[in-house]
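Dig into this one:

. . .
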Amino acid sequence: MPRLPVLLLVLACAAAPAAAASAPGILLIPNGPVEVRDNAGAPWRPVSDHETLAPGMEVRTTESSTARLRFSDGSIVALDRGTVFAIDRADRRQSVFSLKLGRLKAAFAGFFSSRISIKTPTAVCAVRGTVFELGADKSGTQVNMAEGVLEVKDDAGRRAVVTSEETMRITPEGMEPPRIVPLDDYRALQAVRPYAVQQDMAREETRTMLEDLQNRQLKANEAQLGKDVIDASGRRVRLEEYLLRPSGNSFELLFLSKRSDRFDWGHMIETFHTTIPDDLSQVPAIVQSGILAQNQPTNWLTKMDFYATNTVDADKEVMSLGDPVQVDFSGFGKGTLWYPKSIDFTQTLSGPGVPGGSREQFFQHMDYGVSNANVFTWAQFVQPSATSVGSPTEMYRATLDPTSVADVANGYTSAQISNSALYDNVKSSTLYPSGPGKADFQSTTLYSDGTDPTTSVTVRKTLVSDTGQILDFSNPAASDFTKNGSYNLEINIGSSLFQGRDIDVLIAPEILRQKDQATATGKSIAD
C-alpha cells in the first residue's frame, strides 16, 4: 500500500521520466494585463488565462504585468514588465524568438537546450543549454549569464561566446568584450550567479519566497534560526529557518537547506480551529487533544500543508482534518474517544519530468459515519500509469467497525478492490538504511498498471544531530543528542519522475521550542 505521508512525521517532530513532447509546445501564463496578437499586423487582444502560443504570435506585457512561457520540456522564459516578445519559428529543428523590447530571464534545458536563437535589435543569441538574463532597449542589448554557453553575434557579424558568470553589452556601435561579473555588482544577485537564477527561474514558488524574504521586515512575533550543520550523508549544510504567523490560528515554518552545489527549501503550515498561543511549544498538546482525546477538544488541527522543492522538482502534501466527533473504540479495548470526523490526504508531484508538469499522485480519504453509519471508511486513489495526467483512480475501499473486536483483529469489516490492475501492481516497501535502532526510515512505493514504465516515489526520513550523527535509540548517549538536546529532521524525497534529481531538506524543530531565543542568521539568503 502507498507510504505514510511525509506530513505525519513532520507533525511528530514539530510536535521513469516522461519523454519529451512530440512537438514543441509553448504555454503562456499571464500575470496581470497581458496582450497577444496572432501576427505583427494583427490587433492586440487581452489574455487573462493560459494560452498556447504558435509561430508568428507576439506577447506584450505592460508596466504592471509580467508573463511566463513554459515549454514542453520544462524550459521557462519569464518576461518582465514592459516587454514585447515574438515567436518567429517553433518546430522540431529550431526555434527562433525576438526580444523587441524589455527584459527576460530564461532557463533552457532538454529538448530546447540547443535549438533556440533569440534576436534583439542589436544582436542574435544562440542558446546552448543555458540560464541567462537578456535585456533590450534603444541603447543596446545586455546579456547576463548564469551557466552554460551563449553564442552572440552583432549586426556587423562579430561573434563572441559568453559563458557562466559573465556579462556583456552589445550596442548599435558593436559589442563589448565579455567580462566576469564582480560579486558587488547588483546583477550578481539578480541574474548572474547560477544559485540565484535557478531559484528565481526554476520554480515560481522559489522566486516568490526569495522576494518575500528579501523585502520582509520580520515582525516581533516571528523568529529566525540559522546554523551550519552536517547532514546524514556527511555534507555541510547551511540550515536557515523562519517562523511566521500568517494569522492567529496558524503558523508557517519556512526551512532552507543550502549546500555548496544545491539549494533545497520548503515550508510547513499548520492551521487550527481557533487561536493558538504565541508559545508554539504548546501546539503538540493541542494536536493531541483533537485525536484520540477523552475530553471534548476546545481547539484542534484543521489543515497541514507540507511543501519541499529542489527549485526544479517539488512535492506538495496536504492533510485536511474534520471536526472531532465521539467514536466508540471498544473493539480496540478503548472507550469512547474524540477523533476527526474525516481526514483527507493529497500528494502532488511537480517538475519537468512529471506528466503535464504537475499531477496528483496519491489521494486517501477517511471518514467516520459519513459514508457509512457508525463505521470508518477508507478509500485510496493512485495514478494508474507513469504517463497519465488526470485525476487518480480509486484502487481500494474498506470499512471498519471500531466496536467489533473481530473486525479490528481482521483489519477491516469489509473491503473491496476497486481496480485489480492497480492493486496488484502498486507495491510498497520499507527499509531502515542505517540498521536496527537508528532513527532512519525509508519507504518506497511503485505505481504501475503493468504496461507503462513503473513510477517510483521514495521518502527517507532521518533524525540527525548538528554534527551528522543519526539518533541511535539503542544507545542515545553515543549519538550526541544528550549534549545539545536537539536534532534535525532530514527528509529526502526521490521519484523516477524527477529525472535523476532528489529533494533534500533539513528541519530544526527547536525553533518551535525556542522562539524567544532563536538567533538571526546574519547572512543574506543568496550569500
User: Anything to note?
Assistant: The two ends are 43 Å apart (CA to CA). Residues 26-201 form a domain with the Jelly Rolls fold (CATH 2.60.120.1440). The longest helix spans residues 204-215.
